[in-house]
């Protein structure tokens, strides 16, 4: 019944109307001392408890092969990465040194054996603030090749 196409078509305009006119946000008290201000909200039927957050932390998994194509310019301390996602493009300001380290880890272990991630806080304008780039090997480090002459 849930996957009935007619019901899905009827629900779609309702969802679009809800997205176009979101309900007004409730101003939550910033101080834990004002618990009495939350009492009326908790007592109303169907009300869900609300929480506030300082920031939204994101972790973006990158393709190691694509990261190798980016040139790390000498003498530049920071650079901006543009990361294309299915529904948006975000930017991250990272240290060039971390890009070099990640590229070295990829070339040492191979593109299949490393996970490359960007972590930070998502802020307005689709920017990742305080971004850090890291490359983590997926398995044990391959043995060093010894050349016997």
Layout: helices, strands, pairs:
Blueprint: H1 5-20, H2 39-43, E1 56-62, H3 64-68, E2 78-84, E3 89-95, H4 96-109, E4 114-123, E5 127-137
Parallel strand pairs: 3-5
Antiparallel strand pairs: 1-4, 2-3, 4-5
Report on the structure:
Strands 1-4-5-3-2 form a five-stranded mixed beta sheet. The chain has four helices and five strands; from the N terminus they run H-H-E-H-E-E-H-E-E. Helices cover 27% and strands 28% of the residues. It has helices at 5-20, 39-43, 64-68, 96-109, and strands at residues 56-62, 78-84, 89-95, 114-123, 127-137. The chain folds into two domains: 5-43, no CATH class; 56-137, no CATH class. The radius of gyration is 24 Å and the shape is elongated.
Helical stretch tally: 4
Strand content: 25-35%
The helix/strand class is alpha+beta
Compressed to H and E, one letter per element, the order equals HHEHEEHEE
Largest sheet, if any?
5 strands, mixed
Principal-axis shape equals: elongated
| Gyration radius from CA atoms, angstroms | 24 Å
Total separate domains = 2
The total strand number stands at 5
**Whole-number average pLDDT?**
79
Q: Give the N-to-C terminal Cα separation.
A: 73 Å
Widest sheet: strand order? 1-4-5-3-2
Poorly predicted segments: 30-38
What's the helical proportion of residues?
Answer: 25-40%
Considering the chains and any ligands shown, give keywords for the structure.
single chain; 149 residues; alpha+beta; 5-stranded mixed sheet; 5 strands; 28% strand
